[in-house]
Amino acid sequence: MKKWKIDIEIDAPIEQVWKFFDGSLEDMKKIVPILVEHRPIKITEEGVGSVYRRTNKYKGQLQEHDIETLEYVNETNKKKLKVNSIMENILDITNCYELNKIDHNKTLFKYEAIYEPLSWQTKISLLFLKKKPTIEFVERIRNIAEFEAGTEVASHFD
To answer: Which residues, other chains included, contact 47 with Cβ-Cβ below 8 Å and sequence gap of 6+?
Structure first.
């Protein structure tokens, strides 16, 4: 199993960041450029238990998988989305996106990714998986949110 946690401050309002996770397909595509479709399969009133079919285009091929919502919070000062999906019957992925309002134009973003192999081949492959793509993903979210909010700040992870 591989697990990463990253916490960063984003100079953008909480709603500006939240729309990338719980907004339109166009907004989701901004942080996941390979996303082609994200359509509901089962929707629950409270959000938890909802299932979405996601289609990504990766290396010229379409890949589909279902994403189940495990946790969902959409409050004024706190938002959280925890989802799980099985990729190609070889990898169990859990992603958690948590947003906390610091002030009107600043959000604390907490991201956690857990990759659980479902085959011995995947277990070996995970040994070589580095944190860099996770850091790049979080930085992309921050850069896009700050750009759209007009608050771009040059900062990097050390």
So the answer is: 69, 72, 74
